[in-house]
């Protein structure tokens, strides 16, 4: 029996290391899409007194176009409602130079695919040229694309390019305006907020952490596993954001769900004995989670003039969000232990691990399908 227990951690370590290696071995991202701009992204190039914009706008942010009531926008619907759509977009997209609104001197509305007879799309690409009476200075943007319940959780990564300089901002309902080229601190702050929001809104990462924390008790164990997870996902986050490694979400996301199942089953199999070998397992799985976390940053892109600062800010935001969650989770676990009868204290971690395994299995099946 003892030999079986000794072999168990080695087999699980090899399994987790293999999972991590599968993710890291997929170094090339998926094929590029034939889109003018990807969904949830946009770019504005400043040239003299003009700004040339290409912005992806969710169709569900617009009204009065959906003649066939399919929730998508087609080329025929654009042609039939072009003037009304243009008026809505003028209200939704407010681009300024030195506090003054620009004049729209050119506009076109396109679908993200150009094939004839293609079906309607969930977003359209807005092409515009804004002009002022003087060269553009202190560019700022305010978006009103997130006003409907259907777009409340939408985000837009909008990059402004001026000569050799470029800066990217992540805009949402909570933060729908940005002053570009306001300094490195603004870039750092925005990416830190995006990192914290990503980890705190990522249920799979949080469930993984909770499963790890529940396997043992004591500050030495908690410090070891949290440090292992932090170091591991920071490594793959940085490598992926800088383009050294990459893996498609269709591979990484199922493996992240599998890591939850593995850790939960390990809790059920060995109980408190799982704590001894847990830092190594958490490190291996953390490499996968880093690739998953990096997806949000890769979708945004690093700020051109402040690449290192934007990467540092995003990673710091992830760590602060993780630290806040760990502190709350440990506090709640301590309160639960004190308030629970003694017989329940031994069974609660196993019950929690069983629930985590079931949820992880559901996510795994869903993501594989």
From TrEMBL:
<keyword id="KW-0812">Transmembrane</keyword>
<protein>
    <submittedName>
        <fullName>Hydrogenase/urease accessory protein HupE</fullName>
    </submittedName>
</protein>
<keyword id="KW-0472">Membrane</keyword>
<feature type="transmembrane region" description="Helical">
    <location>
        <begin position="314"/>
        <end position="335"/>
    </location>
</feature>
<feature type="signal peptide">
    <location>
        <begin position="1"/>
        <end position="34"/>
    </location>
</feature>
<feature type="transmembrane region" description="Helical">
    <location>
        <begin position="191"/>
        <end position="214"/>
    </location>
</feature>
<keyword id="KW-1133">Transmembrane helix</keyword>
<dbReference type="InterPro" id="IPR032809">
    <property type="entry name" value="Put_HupE_UreJ"/>
</dbReference>
<dbReference type="Pfam" id="PF13795">
    <property type="entry name" value="HupE_UreJ_2"/>
</dbReference>
<dbReference type="InterPro" id="IPR018247">
    <property type="entry name" value="EF_Hand_1_Ca_BS"/>
</dbReference>
<feature type="transmembrane region" description="Helical">
    <location>
        <begin position="280"/>
        <end position="302"/>
    </location>
</feature>
<keyword id="KW-0732">Signal</keyword>
